[in-house]
Design brief:
The protein is α/β, with parallel strands linked by helices. Helix content is about 35%, strand content about 20%. α3 (about 50-60) packs parallel to α4. Bound molecules: 1,3,4-trihydroxy-5-OXO-cyclohexanecarboxylic acid.
């Protein structure tokens, strides 16, 4: 099984960025642990701060990989383009957030990803990514 985790803007700063909300762990360290725990899954990771690069990566993997775990970060709440990309590809996309976006500011309650997502996981810290991964395993 091939799964890609795609992270959007500012998630390259995990570990340093607002640790009270997002924790102290870098994504690279978390990802290494995930790969170790699930050695039979081909797990890939991509991060970009640029909207078009995220769209290109969704297009590139969305017809061949078994699934996409997407934390579009701030673009979740603004990007018609990323929403359309998810509509355009064949493979399931699970929307993930580290924080519980529904317990935060109102502008974070809106998602352009959600209407076309296979499912949504938010608020479990970094574990949100693993829960998304499990959803693919359960449905395999
Ligand atoms: C986030 C929540 C978004 O509202 C925010 O812009 C992020 C991270 C999360 O993982 O909790 O950058 O997607």
């Amino acid at each position: 099984m091939r799964i890609i985790i795609i992270n959007g803007p500012n998630l390259n700063l995990l570990g340093k960025r607002e640790p009270g909300i997002y924790g102290n762990l870098t994504f690279e360290a978390y990802f290494k642990g995930l790969q170790k725990k699930y050695p039979n899954i081909e797990l890939e990771y991509f991060q970009s701060n640029i909207e078009g690069e995220l769209i290109s990566k969704i297009q590139e993997k969305g017809f061949s990989y078994d699934g996409i775990i997407l934390n579009a970060a701030a673009y979740t709440h603004t990007s018609v383009g990323i929403g359309d990309a998810i509509k355009s590809v064949q493979r399931p996309v699970v929307e993930v957030h580290i924080s519980n976006v529904y317990a935060r500011e109102k502008f974070r309650h809106q998602s352009f990803i959600a209407p076309n997502a296979y499912g949504i996981i938010a608020g479990f810290g970094m574990q949100s990514y693993e829960l998304a991964l499990l959803s693919f395993l359960e449905n395999d």
